[in-house]
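**Reference record**
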Amino acid sequence: LEFNYMILQAYDFLELNRRYKCTLQLGGSDQWGNMVNGVELTRRCDGQEVFAMTAPLITTSDGKKMGKSEGGAIWLNQDMLAPYDYWQFWRNTQDDDVIRFLKLFTEVPLDEIEKLAQLKGVEINAAKKVLADETTRMLHGPEVLPSIHETAEALFSS
């Protein structure tokens, strides 16, 4: 089955180029081989020059990649995942990942992140709330945060 996936992804890129003039495929570094196959297939079949670009995989502190194959993928579409559940995903980040994720996934100034990095023990929860708030604000807008905070307070305050 894994062999077929390479062919499927290569053909998918060919069809995206044919139908929508897609010339760039972006993916994680673990997809490099599949992406090169798509570039080569498109060149051989249609004589088109297309490109692939990879980025390093984002992993958690325990070495697991953040992605659907590890159960670490989340929907960005609020029809598939409610804003509260998106917020909870980030709020439940492992302690060892919080500061790195603040740097990667938010626009919080680095000097503020460095202050949050000083928090230890139960205090790290404040940094987790900043991470959850900022990532949720960026995706869903600031207007969803008051109801999320109310729900979290009602569920976890007792």
About this structure: The beta strands are 24-28, 51-55.
